[in-house]
Design a protein that fits this description.
217 residues, mainly alpha, Heme Oxygenase, Chain A, binds fe (ii) ion
């Protein structure tokens, strides 16, 4: 059997391979004005995603009996609430009303599904959200920061200093959960399947997201 730690490394590598070239939300080749609009759209949708993350973690906490994992979740909840407020405030500062934004149905469905997954084993839940999802978020934020640097440096700075470091911590919670719980071949297979399920769903949301930005809706 693969030791849990080695398995976590392998699975992280598989997820990274899945994601190569698949974050279609931003187009690095787009002219600055289009790029700025893509980033602005990310922020609008981001306000919603951060808020739903708070709700999701609150829903999961009672269903995480493993004390050493559970004790990390209130801190994450607090971070996501802060991210929600930071992004919302930034959008107000840019002259927008973030509360008037209609979230994309695909993102709504993804969070509804995740909330409904609360009764699944901790291993599967944390493989999905913290391990697969938050690791991909970190990659996504790295790309966003890079592409926002010239068109909206203040927003780039906000993500770089106030959000990204927390997201790396959230991804580490996922790695810790898997290192503790993915300790049999069957558990490892369940974690791998959960990641696959989550990655496919996020990818579908990314495609819908980009299609809506391109339509200018
Ligand atoms: Fe966040
Ligand atoms: Fe997060």
């Amino acid at each position: 059997m693969t030791a849990a730690r080695d398995f976590v490394r392998e699975l992280a590598h598989e997820n990274a391979t899945f994601w190569r070239g698949r974050d279609v939300r931003l187009d690095p080749e787009a002219p600055p004005v289009v790029r700025r609009e893509q980033i602005r759209y990310r922020m609008r949708q981001g306000v919603y995603n951060e808020l739903r993350s708070v709700e999701l973690i609150a829903a999961w906490i009672p269903y995480v009996p493993e004390r050493e994992i559970r004790e990390l979740l209130p801190g994450q909840l607090d971070d996501e609430q802060r991210h929600y407020q930071l992004l919302r405030t930034r959008l107000f500062g840019l002259g927008e009303d973030p509360d008037a934004y209609r979230p994309l149905p695909e993102w709504q469905a993804l969070f509804d599904w995740l909330v409904a997954c609360r009764t699944r084993p901790t291993l599967e839940k944390l493989a999905m959200f913290q391990f697969a999802g938050e690791t991909q978020s970190c990659e996504g934020f790295e790309a966003l920061i890079e592409l926002a640097q010239d068109v909206d440096p203040e927003t780039a700075e906000l993500y770089r200093t106030q959000i990204l470091p927390d997201e790396y911590r959230h991804a580490a919670i996922g790695r810790k959960a898997l290192s503790l719980l993915a300790d049999t071949p069957a558990a490892q297979e369940r974690a791998r399947a959960a990641c696959r399920e989550m990655n496919e769903k996020i990818f579908a949301a990314y495609r819908a997201h980009r299609a809506r930005v391109d339509r200018g809706a």
